[in-house]
Amino acid sequence: MSDPNEHTDPNDTGDRPRDPTLRRPDGGRNVLKEGRDAELDRGPLQQWAANSIENPERVYRALFYVAAIFFLFTTLFPFYWLLMVALTPEGQLQDIVFTPNGFNPGAFIEVFEVIPFHIYMFNSFIIALASTAVVLVVASLAGYAFGRLEFPGRTPLMLLVLIISFFPPAAFFIPLNDLFNTSFFFLEPITGDGTLYNTPFALVTPLSAIFMPLAIFILTTFYSQIPDGLEDAARVEGTTRLGALLRVIIPLSAPGVATAGVLTFIAVYNEFFFSFLMTDGQPQNWAPILDGILAYQGQYEVLYHLMAAASIIGVIPVAILVVIAQEKIVSGLTAGALKE
Amino acid sequence: LGRGPGSNTVVMTADSGVEGIIHSEGDQPSVQQALWDAGLDEDIRIEIQTVVSDSASRMQTAQAALEAGRAPPDIHMMDSGWTVPFVLRNQTVNLTEELPGETLSYVNENYLDAILETARHPESSDLHGLPLFPDLGFTLYREDYLEDAGYDTSSWATDPPQWEEFANAVSDAREQAGLDYGYTTQAAAYEGLSCCTFNEVMTSWGGAYFGGVNNLFTAGDRPITVDEQPVIDAIRMMRSFIEGENQNTLDGYAQICPSPIIQWTEQQSLSPFDAGNAVANRNWSFAIAQTGAEEAFGENLGVTTCPIGVPEEEAEFDGTGGTAAALGGWNLVVSPFSDRKEEALQVLEAFASEEVMLTVFELGGYLPPNLDLVAEASPDDVGPVARYGDVVQAASDNAIPRPATDLWPEQSALVYQSVNSAYRGAKAPEAAMNDLAQELEQSESEVQTNGN
Amino acid sequence: MARVRLENITKRYGDETAVDDISLEVEDGEFVTFVGPSGCGKSTTMETVAGLTEPTEGRVYIGDDEVTGLAPKDRGVAMVFQNIALFPHMDVYENISFGLRLRKYDDEEVRRRVEEAADIVQLEGMLDRMPAEMSGGQQQRVGIARAIVRNPDVFLMDEPLANLDAKLRVHMRTELQRLHRELNATIIYVTHDQAEAMTMSNRIAVLNDGKLQQIAPPLECYNEPTNLFVAGFIGSPSMNFAEGTLVEGGLETNNFNIDLDPGRLSGVSVGDEVTLGVRPEDVHLRRYADSLADPTDPIDARSDVLEPMGDEVFVYLLLAEEAGRSMAEDPATASDQLLMSITPDTDVHEGQDLEVVLDRSKLHLFDAATGEALLHGLVERSGPESGEASKAG
Amino acid sequence: MARVRLENITKRYGDETAVDDISLEVEDGEFVTFVGPSGCGKSTTMETVAGLTEPTEGRVYIGDDEVTGLAPKDRGVAMVFQNIALFPHMDVYENISFGLRLRKYDDEEVRRRVEEAADIVQLEGMLDRMPAEMSGGQQQRVGIARAIVRNPDVFLMDEPLANLDAKLRVHMRTELQRLHRELNATIIYVTHDQAEAMTMSNRIAVLNDGKLQQIAPPLECYNEPTNLFVAGFIGSPSMNFAEGTLVEGGLETNNFNIDLDPGRLSGVSVGDEVTLGVRPEDVHLRRYADSLADPTDPIDARSDVLEPMGDEVFVYLLLAEEAGRSMAEDPATASDQLLMSITPDTDVHEGQDLEVVLDRSKLHLFDAATGEALLHGLVERSGPESGEASKAG
Amino acid sequence: MEGLSETAYAYLLLLPAFALLTLVAFYPMIRTFVMSLRADQTRGIDPLGGFIGIENYIDILTGNARLARQFLDIGLTSSFPFIEFGTPFFQQALFVTLAFAIISVVMETLIGFGQAYVLDQDFRGRRWVRVAIILPWAVPIVIQGMIFFLMFQPTVGFGSDLMQSIGVFSGTPLANSRDAFIIILVADIWKSAAFMALLILAGLQSVDRSLYDVARVAGASPWQRFKLITLPLVMPALLVAMLFRTMDAMRVFGLIESTAGCTTVPSLTCLVVEAMFGGTRIYATAAAVAFSTALVIGLIIGGYVVLFRDTEGGMY
Ligand SMILES: Nc1ncnc2c1ncn2[C@@H]1O[C@H](COP(=O)(O)OP(=O)(O)OP(=O)(O)O)[C@@H](O)[C@H]1O
Ligand SMILES: Nc1ncnc2c1ncn2[C@@H]1O[C@H](COP(=O)(O)OP(=O)(O)OP(=O)(O)O)[C@@H](O)[C@H]1O
Ligand SMILES: [Mg+2]
Ligand SMILES: [Mg+2]
C-alpha cells in the first residue's frame, strides 16, 4: 500500500532519490518490509523504478518535467543564438556557438540610430491591432453562423471561405495592387489622394481577409461546442441572438477567442508579403516592422547583428505582451465579463 | 494620413547609402547642393524614398509601383541588370526625346559605354535611363602575402596574371601565411553568379552566353553558346579551385577556393578576406574602399581585374578572352506616371554634370559613369579607390555587361542554377551546359513566337 | 393579459415526433402543470412556448398575439430550465440579475430584486459564489431565482425543484404559489412529483408520447382519469388494474367477480374485454368492510412483500397462488396482483393469507381495447350514498 | 469485500466546511441512503468515497484497505453523477460501454451487457442517439446505465432518479433493489425523495450542515428521530412542532396541554422548554378519538387551507385565532399551527371549526435547547397498549 | 433582425466576412484566373498577350513552362517504378512541397500536442514557459530564415560543421537540396509547432472538467483519458490547426527564400513568386502556376474534408 502523502506533494518531482525512512511519516508500519528492501541494497535508480511502478503518477510528473525542459531548450536555443549574433560586433560574424564573437551590446541602441525602428514597431502594432479587431468581429459573426445555425449551403460556404488560403499571396498581388492604387473619390477625405496605398488600410484590409479564415474556423469550432441550453437561457432572459453571442458564447469560448486573437495579431505583426509590397517601406507611411528589419540589409552587406537585435526587440516584448494579454482576455472573458 | 511631397519635390528611390549623401547638415557638401550648383532650379528638392537594398526586392518595389501606374516615386533608381525589361514595357520615359541635346551628347560621348547599353531601348537604342554610377568587378589580393611567397605582383594591376599563375600564387601564399582561405568569390545560386562572377570567368576563357558581346541586348535571333568548350573549361577550372584533383576539373589548377563559396554571396566572401584570413577575393569597388583604407590593409591591398584564361586573340567569340570586369551599377529612370516629369528631367540633367558626378564619387565612393573623372578626383576625398585609378580604367575597358534583355531575369535564373549545380558537381559541366542551352533556346524562342 | 394558447403544435426531430398535435389553452393567471413519462415531450412543448424551438406545425399565442416565430426575448416569458443552464462564467448575483441588467434597470433596483429573489430561494449570502462552487440543489435554486426576479407575465418552469429535498420543496412550493397569487402570473410547470402537481396546479395536463391525454383539475385527473394511461400515471403508487370480461350482470376477472349492469355502459357490450382499475388506498382488509358504504365481495389474497413508508405501508398482494414471481418487481400490470396501502399500525406481515374488499364507489372501468374510461365508481348495486368516510389510527 | 468506512472525514473549501467530521461505516452489501437539505454535503461525501475529492482530513477505507489518495479507477466504484455529465461526443452506446471498453471486454460481452443495462433503464432503441438529442430523463437514465453496466463492488448514486417521472421511478427503484440483491453490491445513494429513501435503504444517513445527524434503518429514523432536525426532515409533509414548557405533571403549550411525568425524562426538569412533535397522520378528528388507544384531550382548531393530494388531504389547522396569516405559508414552525392528514372522503371544508386529538403513543418530545430527542411515545398515562390500528375508507 | 428566419439570419451574419473576401480574394482571384488563360507578354504596356486557353496549364504539367524549376516533370516508363523523373525529385516543386507539407505538419502536430499538454498543466512559472513556447511563432519569417541561414553558414554558424562531423550533412548544406530541405523543415517545425500548440491548448482548456471525473471513476488511466476524452474533444480544434498548417506549409516561400533560396528548395509558391517578380514579365504563367497550386492545395484539403467529415463534433 502506498503512502498517501506521495500523491499530494506537488513538489515531488519524483526524480530525486529519497531516504526511504523519510517516506514513513507513520513511524514505519512496514518495518519488516523496509528491512528486506535495505538488504536487497537497491540503488537509487532501482528504488526509483520500484517506486514508479508502485506509483505511476511519479512517472508522469517526471516525464512532464523532462518534456517541459526539452521544449524550453529547443524553442529557446535559437533565440539564445540570435542574441549571440546580436552581441557580436559588425563584421566579426564567425564561428559563433555559445558565445558571441566579441561583445557589443551597443547593437541594441544602434538599431534605433540607424533607422527609426520604434516607428516601424509602432506601425506594425497598430496594424496588427486593427486587423485583429476586424478579424475578431467579422469572424465572430461568421463563426456564430457556421457553428450554431443550420442553413442551406453551410458546408460549401465554409469551404469557400478557405479558398483564399489555397492561393499563394503572390497570386493576388496584381489585382490588389491595382485596386489599392486606384483612386476612389470617397476616400479622398481620408487618405488625401483617394488611394489606399501607403495607408494602414492597404495592409489592414488584405491582412484581415487573409487571416480571417483561420479565425472563422477556430471560432466556429469553439462556438459550436457551447451547449444550446446556455444560449437558450440567455435568450429567454432577454438577449437577442447577437446579445447571447456577446454575453454568453464568446465569454465561454474565451480560450478559443483569445487564441484566434493571438494568432491573428502575431501573424499580422510578422506578415511578409503584403507588408512588403503594400507600402513604400517608409516608416511615416505605415511601413511595418518587416520593412524595418529589411532596412538593415544593404546591396552587398547585411548588418546581421542589427537585424538580430532588431528582431529580439521587435519580438520579445510583443510575445510577452500577447501572452499576458491572452491570460487577461481569458480570465476577463470568463470571469465577470458582464460586470457593468 | 495626409502625405505626399510638396509640389516641387521630386521623389526618388534609393538605398540608404545613396540617401546618406543627398542631403547634409548645415554647410557640409551634399549632392542636393551640387545639383543646385549644377543649375538645378533652386525650388526643386529631391526627396529620397529609401528602399530595401537587396536588388531583387528593389525590383519588386519598382515593379509594384510601375505596374500600378503609381507615382511618386518620380525617379526610380534601377539596377543596370534589370533596367531594360522596364524600358521594353514602356514604363520609362524616353530620355533621348526629353533631355536637351547637349546633355545627351555629353552622356553618349563620355559615359562608360557598357553601362549606357544597359539603359538603352534595345531596338531603337534610345536612352531611357541615366547611369548614376557603374560598378565593376575586381580581384583583390594581398600583395604582402604574395610577395612573401615569392611572387612579384607589381605588374598585376593592369596586366592581370593567367589563372594558372594566379592559382599557384594564391595557393603558395596561403600555405606560407598559414591562412584558412585562398581565393574567395561568389558562387551561390543567385543573380551575382550569372551576371558577374561566372560571366567574368567565362569571358576570360573566351566563352559567352550568346556568342559574343554584340548579341547581348537583342533577344531572339542569336546563337546560344553556353555549351561551347570555353564555357565548359571555365567551369572545370572553377571546379579545380573548389575541389582540387577530382572529376571534371582542369589539370594544373591548384585548389584555392573554399567549398562554401557555392553558397556565398558578396558579404560572406568578403568577410574572411577583410578579416585577413584569405589571400584574394573577387568583389566590387566598395570592397576596395573598405579593405584599402589605411586602418585596413592600406598599401598591402592589390587590385586587378579578372585573371586571364585565354588571350583575347585566341578567344572564340567577339569581345571575349583576356581579362574582364563584370559590370554592375545603377541607372536613374523617370517614371512616365509622374506629375513632375519636367522637374524630374531637370534633376537627371543636373546629375549628368561632372561636378555632381564627382560629388557623388567623393561623398559616397560611387564610381562616376564618366570614368575619366576618377583620375580627377582628389584622393583625399575619395579614399583608396583613387589609388587604383588605372585599374578602374582597365576594368572599364574590359567591362562585360550581362545580356540584360527583358528575358534576362528568366535566363539568369536558368544560368545560375546550372552553373551552381555544375560547380557543386551535382551535374557534369557538359551535361549541365547542354541542358542549359536547351532551356535558353526555349526561352529565346518565346520571343519569336510571341512576336515580341 | 397572458393567456397562452397552443394550436395544433407538432414538433418533429427527423422521423421522431416529440410533440404530436397538441392544442391547449392556459388562462391568464392559471397554473398548469405538465406531467408525463420521461421523453413524452414536456420540455419540447415548453420550448415552443418560450420560442426556443420553432414548432414544425402549429401556432403559439401569448395574450392575444400570435408569437410563433417571435424571438424569445419578445415573448415576455421567464423560464427555469430542466438542465439548469447557469452561466458558468458569472457568479450567482450576475446569473440572477442577468435579465434585469439587460433591461437596464438601475443598480439599486437590481440589487433589491436580486436580494429578494435570493431570499425566496434561501440563497442569501451565496451571491458571490460561482456556479461550479455550489451543490446541485443550490444551482437549481439560482435557476429559479433567475426566472422569478424578472416578474414576467408567463413563467415556464421545467422541473424546477427536481434537485431539492422534501422540506425545501415544500417551502419552494408555497413560495411559488404565493408568487403566482401575487403576480397573478400565468405559470406552466413541468414536474414528475405528484404532490407538486396535485397541490399547486389549477389544472394538470397529462402527456404521453407527444400527445395530450387529459387536461383537467388535479382531483379530476385523479378521480376521473379519461383513459388507462392517465389512470395509471397519476397517483403514486399506481392504480391496480385487472383485465376482465363483461358478462351478464357483472364483470369477471381471473380471480374475482364484480356485480354490475353492462347495459348501462355505452360503447361496450357483454363479452367485451374491459380493464378494472382500483387505487391501492381503495383496497381494504375485510375486517374494515363494514366501514365502507359499498364494498365488494371478499377476495382471497396472500400478502407478498410489505413496504413500510413511515406514514403508510404498501402491501403487495398475490391473488392466485403464483410461485416464483414476486409482485414487487412489476406491481401494476398483472391481474393476479394487487397493491394495498394500509396504516403502519395494522398487523399485517409478509406471507399472510388475507381477505380484502374493494370500495365499489372508487372502482374505474376502462375499455380494454381503446383504453378509454367507461365508468368511474360502480354505484348501481346498492342505494346508500357513500357518506362520510373516516380514518382510524 | 466492499465495506466502506469513513473515518473523520472533513472537507473544507476555503473557509466553507462542506463536510464536517463524518465517520460512518457501510457494511458489505448494504444499501445506505444519504439524505439532507440542499448543500449539506451529500455529494461532497460521495466524492471523497469515489476519490474525486481528497478530504481535507480523515481517511476512507474500502474493503480492508485505506484508499485515501488512491486514484478513482483503483477503488472499484461506479458512480451516477448528480449533474449527469454524459460524454457529449459519444452516443448512448458508447457512453454506457465506456467503462467496459476501458477494461477490454470483448465486443460480444460489451454489447450484451450494454443492452441489458439499456433494458433496465428502458432505453432500448436509443443506443445510437447523441446525448444532446435526448430529454432530461433519458439522459439521466443513460447515466444510470453507465454505472450499473460495470457491476462494481460499490455503487455511488447521486440523485439518480431526480428527473424521472413517478412511474419510472418506481420501476427503477425495483430494478436497483434487484441489482442490489443480485450483485450483493454495496450501494451509497443520495436522494431527496422520501419514498425512495424509505423503501430502498437498509439504513438512512441524515446529514445537515456537513454533519451526520443520524444513521439508522428507515423506520427508526421515522419513528425515533434522534433530534429535531431529523424529525423535521424525515417525513413529508413534515412533523408538526409545538414549543412548550414542562410543568408539574405535564407539558403546556400555547394552545393545549399534555399530561406527562417530567420526572421520567432525563436531562430536563420542570420549567425547561421542550418541543413537542407530532406527525400529520397522528392528528385525528375528535370523532375518531375512540378508535385511538390513547388520545389526548380534544384541542380546538379551525381549518384554514385544504390541500387535496388524491389519496389523502392535508388540512392546515389554526389553533389560536390568528387573523391575517395563512398557515400554508410556513406550516412547520409556529406552535399555533397544525397540519393534519385525512382521507379524501372526510367532509372537512376550509374555515370550519373543529376539535382534534393527537395520538399520544405517537408523540415526540425534544429538548428545545439542544434539539435532542427526549422521548418517543407518551405511554405513561393509561395502561392499554395501542393495539391493532385500522384505517376506514 | 430577430424576426429573420435562421437561414436569412445566417446569411446576414456571413455578409461582412464575404464582403471582405470578395474584395480581397474573389475579385483578385477571378482576375488572376483570366490572366492565366492568356499568353505571356514580356514587352509593351499590356502585360498579357492573346487568349490561349489552358495552354499555360499544359506547359506547367509537362515541364515546359518558362520556369527556373519545374512544377512537375515526370514521364511514364514501362519498368518499375513506372514513373520517371524528368528532373530530380528535389527540383520538382510539387514533390518538394508535398513532402515538406506532410512531414512538417505531422511533426508539428506531435510536438504541438506535447507542448500544449505541458502548458495545460498547473505549475509555477507556467506563464513564462508559455511565453517561451509562443516566442518562435512571434518571430518574423525573415528572422526565422536568418537564424537558420546563419547557423548553417559554414564560416558563421556551427551547424554545418556539427552536422557534417556527425555525417548527416554535406559541407555546404544550404546549397545541397536534401540538406537544405531538412534545415527548412526543422526551421518550420521550430516556428510553427507553437501555432499547433496554441490551438490545441485552447481546445484542451475548453474541455468540461467534470467529464474527466466521470472517466476517472469509470477506471480510465491517464492515457485512456487522453485517448477517449481529450483527443476526441480537442479533435475539432486539432483539425482546424492541421488544416491551416497544411495550407500554410503548401504555400511555403518566405522561409525558403531567406535560407537556402528557391533554387535549392523550390516550392510551389517559389515558382509563383519568381514568375511574378522574377523581372521577366510572365504574369500569365505565374497566374497559371498560382491556380495550379491552389488546385493542388484544394485537392489536399478536399482529402481532409472527406477523411474527417464523420468526426464527431467536427467542422462539417
Ligand atoms: N468547489 C467548491 N467551492 C466552494 N464551495 C463548494 C464547492 N463545492 C461545494 N461547495 C459547497 O459545499 C457544500 C456541500 O456541497 P454538496 O455538493 O456536497 O451538497 P449536496 O449535499 O450534494 O447538496 P444538493 O442536494 O443540493 O446537491 C455546499 O454548501 C456547497 O456550496
Ligand atoms: N434534438 C433532438 N433530436 C432528436 N430527438 C430529440 C431532440 N430533443 C428531444 N428529442 C426527443 O424528443 C422527445 C421529447 O423530448 P422532451 O425533452 O420534450 O421530453 P420530456 O418530456 O421533457 O422528458 P423528460 O421528462 O425526460 O425531461 C424525446 O423522446 C427526445 O428523445
Ligand atoms: Mg424534459
Ligand atoms: Mg449534491
Automatic annotation (TrEMBL), chain A:
Annotated transmembrane regions: 62-83, 120-145, 157-176, 196-223, 244-269, 302-324
InterPro entries: BP-dep_ABC_trans_perm, MetI-like, MetI-like_sf
Protein family (similarity comment): Belongs to the binding-protein-dependent transport system permease family.
Organism: Natronobacterium lacisalsi AJ5
Record-level GO cellular component terms: plasma membrane
Domain of life of the native organism: Archaea
Protein's UniProt name: Sugar ABC transporter
Annotated keywords: Cell membrane, Membrane, Transmembrane, Transmembrane helix, Transport
Keyword field contains Transmembrane: yes
Region span, Disordered: 1-34
Segments forming domain ABC transmembrane type-1: 121-325
Signal sequence residues: none
TrEMBL record, chains C, D:
Catalytic function, reaction form: L-arabinose(out) + ATP + H2O = L-arabinose(in) + ADP + phosphate + H(+); D-xylose(out) + ATP + H2O = D-xylose(in) + ADP + phosphate + H(+)
Compartments, record wording: Cell membrane
Residue ranges of the TM segments: none
EC primary class: translocase
First-listed, main subcellular location of the protein, grouped into a coarse class: membrane
The protein's name: ABC-type D-xylose/L-arabinose transporter
Domain ABC transporter: 4-234
Job of this protein: Part of the ABC transporter complex XacGHIJK involved in the uptake of xylose and arabinose. Responsible for energy coupling to the transport system.
GO molecular function: ABC-type transporter activity; ATP binding; ATP hydrolysis activity
BP terms from Gene Ontology: carbohydrate transport
GO cellular component: ATP-binding cassette (ABC) transporter complex, substrate-binding subunit-containing
Protein family (similarity comment): Belongs to the ABC transporter superfamily. Carbohydrate uptake transporter-1 (CUT1) (TC 3.A.1.1) family.
Domain of life: Archaea
Membrane topology classification: Peripheral membrane protein
EC numbers on record: 7.5.2.13
UniProtKB/TrEMBL annotation, chain E:
Boundaries of every ABC transmembrane type-1 domain copy: 94-301
CDD domains for the chain: TM_PBP2
Localization of this protein: Cell membrane
Segments traversing the membrane: 9-30, 93-119, 131-152, 180-204, 225-244, 282-307
Gene Ontology process terms (BP): transmembrane transport
Record's keyword terms, sorted: Cell membrane, Membrane, Transmembrane, Transmembrane helix, Transport
Entry GO CC: plasma membrane
Membrane topology summary: Multi-pass membrane protein
UniProt family annotation: Belongs to the binding-protein-dependent transport system permease family.
Protein name: Sugar ABC transporter permease
Organism of derivation: Natronobacterium lacisalsi AJ5
